[in-house]
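User: I'll paste a sequence; please echo it back and then give the predicted structure.

Assistant: Echoing your sequence first, then the prediction.
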Amino acid sequence: MTDTPSRPRRLRVLAAMSGGVDSAVAAARAAEAGHDVTGVHLALSANPQSFRTGARGCCTVEDSRDARRAADVIGIPFYVWDLAERFREDVVEDFVAEYEAGRTPNPCLRCNEKIKFAALLDKALALGFDAVCTGHYATVVTREDGTRELHRASDAAKDQSYVLGVLDERQLAHAMFPLGDTLTTKDEIRAEAERRGLAVAKKPDSHDICFIADGDTQGFLANRLGRSEGDIVDEDGQKLGTHEGAYGFTIGQRKGLRIGHPAADGKPRYVLDISPVDNTVTVGPAAALDVIALTAVRPRWCGAPPAGAGNYTAQLRAHGGETEVSAELEPGADGTGVLRVRFSEPERGVAPGQAIVLYDGTRVVGSATIASTERPPSRGAAPFAGGGRKRGVAPSPGRTPARGAR
């Protein structure tokens, strides 16, 4: 669903209002365009106080009140929908289970996939709404044949298409992003909110994980999974120190390693691998983080899947839109659910569990979850095509709940 003048039809729109400035302005613009808009705030915790008090745009009682006040100013009906149980199962438990398996998940991306454009959209359609509107910075383009494409926002600095790369063609047909084609700064969005009389105009943005009350991810995981001492080793397996749980580390991490003695070359060491099987964290030099290729699973295509091999650009992290990399999608996207992607130049800090999103120009082709990575050949290792040096744990077809998650 696009919000351009080319579609003048009046639509019934459900505006997801987080309590932040972006979603409030998006709802106001949809209403100003003549659509029949209803605001909804998603209650994502059975105990809202367990989420961040004074949060910046998501999940608290304060945010619900901010969203309601914004809806009143805009002049639209407003409701609060309880999706706490679905959020717990699909986002929070998934987050814990992924870390337990040695991977690094992206809970915001999972929330978009499972909550805002699955649970919320399905309920909206069942109630007769035509579209779900959010404050994401991305653009939906309608082609002449009526099909829709997801594109980057007009302002690359604010683009959020990476976390929307999980949307399929059906979901795109009912998505509306009124901020996506806006070439304005965030200050101008805030100024617009102030002109509209929205009290959230000066509310800070949210950057943290909404369901971790104090921002301490490692402490949250330790509370859910328990502390389990293990070894920190170098690439040769030599013990350098200990840790209290491999789940507390991410690929590319430099700080907080607590290694007792420096490397022989005096240079910093980084997390290279996380093994949940033996609770071991491997560290080494920055150069050892180089990745030339990866395998990814659970692809989600924003339209028809690619027919075969092809050259694209790839984004490997949520805030990496200005650092796209050239990538070749190799044969394998043939229904097996496993993709192979090779980079034109080595990339660093690529973590299993994160998403890779492929682009054709500004168009989002699709996304998949990184399962394992390939390092450049070394010490006589075979090249990628023959199975170069691999690291990472491939996700299993199903997800086993983490210890303590239920």
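Residues 50-57, 379-389, 393-406 have pLDDT under 50 and may be disordered. Helices lie at 21-32, 61-74, 84-100, 107-126, 169-172, 186-195, 217-225.
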